[in-house]
C-alpha cells in the first residue's frame, strides 16, 4: 500500500530523513513511532507530495509517485483519490457545523449530490458526532475536533488512511474511542498508517510498528516482537525476600543480594512460578515479591536511546 525506499530529505542543512525505508501492507494498521523531531511528519508530507525529498522512491497503492528527485504528478493525483489524510496541525472552520464542513469537503472530492447527504450522515455516526452535527465547530473540544478531522479524511472512502499524530492531545477516553474507530476501519478492509510519539497509542490496535529515530527506521515488527526484544535485553527485575538464605548458584537468572535474605533477580521472562518452586525446593518461603515490569514508555525510551 505504501513503500518508501532510501528516502532522503534535507531542510537546508538539517537531514530530516536519512535513507528511510518502510513498507505498509494491505489491511495493516501500521503505527509509525518516533520521538519529537525524528522525521514522522516529514515522511508523511513526502508521501503525499506536500514537500520535496531529494532522493529515494515512494510507492503509494500500486503507483510509483516519486523517483529520482521528482514526483510523477499524474500518479500522485490518481493515488490521492484513494487516500484519506489527517494532518497534525489542521484547522477547521470554527463558524461552520460538522455537516457544513463535510459538505464542503465532499464537494472538493466531487462526491455526487445524491450520495453526499447519506455519506455525511454515515461518517458523523461513525465518528460519534451525530448529536453535535449542527453545532458550531468553534465550541468543540479537542476530541470532537479530532473526530471531525477523521471524518474529513474518510469522506472519499479511502483505501489507505494516513494520520499524523491523530491521538495527540486526547484524554484516555478519547484515545480509546479513537482506537475503536480505527478498528472499525480495519474491519472495513482499510489500511491505516498513523504516527505517534507515544507507545501507548499504538498498543492494542497496530499489527505492525515502525520506529523512526533521526530519520531512519530502526525497528519494524509487531509491538510484541519489539517488547520481547527489549525484555530480552533489559529483563524483568524481581525483588524478593525469603524466610532463610537461598543459594542461587545453579539458576540461569542473574541474582544479587540486597540485604539479609533479600535479593534482586533479573530474568529474561516472567519467572515468578519458577521462583516459587526453586525457593520451596531449598526449604525456604517467599515473604515478599515485587516484580518490576518496564512500562511501555520505558521500553520506548530504551529503544530510541
Ligand atoms: N520546515 C522545516 N524547516 C527546517 N527544518 C524542519 C522543517 N520541518 C521539520 N524540520 C526538522 O526536521 C526534523 C524532522 O522533523 P519532523 O517534523 O518531520 O519530525 P516529527 O517526528 O514529525 O516530530 P514531531 O513529533 O515533533 O512532529 C526536525 O529536526 C525538525 O526540526
Automatic annotation (TrEMBL):
InterPro entries: AAA+_ATPase, ABC_transporter-like_ATP-bd, ABC_transporter-like_CS, DrrA1/2-like_C, P-loop_NTPase
SUPFAM superfamilies: P-loop containing nucleoside triphosphate hydrolases
Keyword vocabulary terms for this entry: ATP-binding, Nucleotide-binding, Transport
Pfam families linked to this entry: ABC_tran (PF00005), DrrA1-3_C (PF13732)
UniProt domain ABC transporter: residue ranges: 2-239
Signal peptide range in chain numbering: none
GO molecular function terms noted in the UniProt entry: ATP binding; ATP hydrolysis activity
PROSITE patterns registered for this protein in UniProt: ABC_TRANSPORTER_1, ABC_TRANSPORTER_2
Family per similarity comment: Belongs to the ABC transporter superfamily.
The protein's name in its UniProt record: ABC transporter
Species for this entry: Thermococcus peptonophilus
Lineage, opening ranks: Archaea, Methanobacteriati, Methanobacteriota, Thermococci, Thermococcales
